[in-house]
Write a structure and sequence with these properties.
The complex is a heterotrimer of chains A (458), B (276) and C (435). Chain A is an all-alpha fold and 458 residues long. Chain A has 2 domains: 162 residues, no CATH class; 235 residues, MetI-like (MetI-like fold). Helices cover 77% and strands 1% of the residues of chain A. In chain B, the strands form 2 sheets. Chain B has a 6-stranded mixed beta sheet, with helices on both faces. A 4-stranded antiparallel beta sheet of chain B has the order 2-1-4-5, with helices on one face. In chain B, a hairpin with a 2-residue loop joins strand 4 and strand 5. Chain C has 18 helices and 3 strands. The chains are: A mainly alpha (458), B alpha/beta (276), C mainly alpha (435).
Chain lengths: 458, 276, 435
Amino acid sequence: MSLTVATYTILVLSLVGYLMGYRWAKNLERGRARRLHSRPHYHGLWVALCMLLPATIAMLAAIALRGAVIDWLVLQQMPESYLADKDRSLVTTRLWTIARDQFGVTNVRDVEEAAAARLLRLTNLANWAIGLGSIAISFGMGVYALRPLSHTFQARNAAERIILWILVACSAVAVLTTAGIVFTLIFDSLRFFSMVSPTEFLFGLDWRPITAIREGQVGQEGSFGFVPVLVGTAQIAFLAILVAGPIGLLSAIYMVEFAPHRVRATAKPVIEVLAGIPTVVYGFFAATLVAPLVRDLGNAIGIPASSESALAAGSVMGIMIIPFVSSLSDDVVSSVPNRLRQAAYTMGATQGETIMRVVLPAALPGLVSALVLAISRAIGETMIVVMAAGLAANLTLNPFESVTTITVQITTVLTGDQPFDSPMTLSAFALALALFAITLMLNLFALQVMERYRDQYD
Amino acid sequence: MVTQMEAPLEIARPDSQPATSRPDVEEKMICREVNVFYGDFHAIRNATLDIHAREVLALMGPSGCGKSTFLRCLNRMNDAVENARVTGTILLDGEDIYAPGIDPVHVRTRVGMVAQAPNPFPKSVYDNIAFGPRLHGFVKGRAELDDLVERSLRRAGLWDEVKDKLDERGTDLSGGQQQRLCIARAIANDPEVLLMDEPVSSLDPNAAAVIENLITELSEEYSIVLITHSMEQTRRVTDRTAFFYLGEIAEAGPTAEVFENPQDERTVDFIRGAFG
Amino acid sequence: MTDRSAGATHRYRTAGFDAGLRRRRRRETVLKGLGILSIAIAIGMLVTLFGSIFWQARTAFVQTQIGLEIDIAAEEFEGGADATASAIKGASFRGMVRDALYDRLGGRPDSRAARRDMGAIVSADAPFQLMQDVLDNPDLIGQTRMFWLPASDDVHNLVQGVIDPDTPAADLPVGERVMGWLEELEAQNAIRSAFAWDLFLRSDSRDPEVAGIFAGVVGSALMLTVTLLVSLPLGVAAAVYLEEFAPRNWFTKVIDANIRNLAAVPSIVFGLLALAVFIRVFGMPRSSPLVGGLALSLLTLPTMIIAARAAIAAVPPSLRTAAMELGASKMQTVTKVVLPNALPGILTGTIISMAEALGETAPLLMIGMIAFVADPPSGFLDPAAPLPVQIYTWSTSPERAFAAKTAAAIIVLLLFLFLMNALAIYLRDRLQKKW
């Protein structure tokens, strides 16, 4: 039985439960003169929620556990001789690959063939069990929910209490997402660091993740020195800010301080259009137009330039974050109270002096946090660098040379047909952990500063 | 304290300050037929008023009657308001401040202003005072600037209170101190006229009294135009008073005269209402 | 007092002050000029970007076609004129197309290389298109008819001027004899440019001349459906709780801070999360719209919640009080009064976050949505390559004709985004109540 069928069955059952609860309450209402505590549809809602929620939760939990349990069961039955010198997680990965008939696996041994078949059989069995089990829970809960229906039953309060908990759960999804990110990244990074030493990762100057030919050949790993990747990332982010910082800031200043209302009303949305363009489009723009231009420029001024130069990726990324910088700076500069501008004017300051000596110093913390948020955005940006920056991790500061970034490496590592447990694949999670940590720190810092800045003038 | 408070009453000798201009009265600013429009709204109608040298002139009238708008005409602060338009003539020492080729920056340097609520810059006390002189290049060297800062703070009666905290932020001072800081900042520019828009309305009575005394002292050097809602304050510190009503000047003259013997119906109502 | 009133000491009455003031005004003009320049650069970049994409896309909206008299001889088919579908599929349409080409260009060339070159004038997909025509209309068997078949990408580029035919022969993608044949075809009026319906109606292909975005659009639509179904209820529920029910305690504060930080987490990280949780733990199929949609749901959730909260907060408290006074429970007030009034704001926020999701690419690469997908996915579990991913894969293809296709696909994507944003603005302006 497919789980989809089970899901639909539970949905239909719940609907039936709703109708039964509704009818039951209607009959109660009609049968006697006494009024019900709650309107009939609340009775229906109560029954439906009872049938839907526990069954769904049970189903999701069972699905989440299914994989681990089946893997364990299958491994239990495999001969010790086969498992002796192998990493268990690599074995399961291989078995799944065989079972799904992916990647044209070669040299399949009989033991593996049998285990893969068992894997499929057990999965099928588990799906049946989970499907039938959840339907049974749904049904049972329906019977339980219909029982207390009576004149005095406070169906509305009961249903609303459940709904409130659903609302709480939905709010918690954001927290769960963060927890999920942190847990996933740390868990897989730890597996990576069991294969590659953290010292090598953090201080190594050479990044060459070599494809493990087939699973099991752990000895084949390349070098995993994070430094050149980090330097490349920082360089491209720096170039991006070099473009977006002045342009975004100056245009925000012009629009807040100088522009007549009509100009502001037109120019602001036009610049915001830049923010709505998908990053893959910027990537295409960078790869097809800007990169060749930069290469020709480099060659014209006598600097041998790569067609995947850091400058091309960085400047296009800069264009992408112009609206980000300008709209944040716009908010920041606008929130500087007018009385300070007035004070400066009455002192005989020109508008320019008012901006440079009063408005900008007052807005400084906000502007700094806007720039930090922009840097964080640039560091985490993926498509532009994937399409326009290089793959080779050169440790260089020359913007005409090709460098690579964290996000490029994550993408490259994870889009190849790679077995899951090679150090190369897992290195993506270590890189992502570093990326997450760096951007989180920048964001926390910026949001903190921004909040304090806003409080100051509220 | 008491003598100082009564001092303006001595100055406001009813017989010596007739409303018409006299040869011995030096006229600092002359306003003729001033009209102000905000878009279609006619905010000031045909205001004609003179400001004498070294006097305190009060602008009074109900809220929204155009006092602030008129005040902002005197240092061209209406220029900063989009779609505001000023017509008529305003002369400062005989020179039209709205003439083409006159930079409003120049006007504002000569005609200083203190706002209703204290608005020090979020900078140190020292930098607040030094703001104007630095902009205009009035001083050469740190020593001269130090000297000017001290002089300005002394004249604003703030020096003794802040001399040990010149590096603290101006915004951290108390309300009354902040307002005196703003006055000190304004006089550091060495202006000829000082405009004050209800400078004590946001302060407690003690701080207000200090500022009132300061106004009296400063009027020995500057022309001061003061917007106020308080009849007592007007009596205490001002030489002459102009009543505004719905954008028009209803009546203007020596304070005591106007208060005791108002000529205009609207002034009569206002004074009675305000006292009653 | 007297020495000051002399006024001679006023330092702003000097020529030095006026000169200084002129200098100060000049500096102000420079600042203003830099502002205008920045805006001009930003807008200039936007124009350049659009311009370059439209320019590159210009040849993708036409398809170069070669007109051939093709003899669909009955003897080519097992069973002759009554051939079954499988018999039709077994026939050599490639041979028929080649023969028609030989006829058109003065006979079968002697050398194998020349024959290969001549065959490469039409698209490798042309025989399949012919087969499809015959499958659709078996009466064609036994007839000789004129068919317009797509030319190969190199021919397309030459005919449409993507490659200048006057470039030195060494740099041309085709040999001299092919150039000669093209002139001959031209002379016979056997080359035409038709609107490239294939771009919209067909799916991805290894041959750029017949590749289309249909599967990509379907994949994106399926994925956005999942995203909408998940993130809208979740986002609204979370917003309702946080705005209407949540006590102001540490838990709420944590959620609050969390949402703001989550909104700034790089999108690629959500891809890794989806890979680890949905694919590895829950065993959902890789490359499927389901997993992609779930990943995008988590990605857009912060935006959704923030937008929905703003919309709910904008409902005036007086309406809530009125409902409560009429005896409605808190929950009824929310469902009957608050949500209907917040609906336009919520819808606007939803459309904007869906637009954001539509353009998102990086997280999808993490969950394997980069595979070549030749058929439109028919369900939420089929492998799919949504439009932005297709743009990415096309842009990395070596064939030159894919560059134009990429630009064309980008235009379609931008068009969708434009429509969504226009709808959001319309909703915001027309439906939102002014309190």
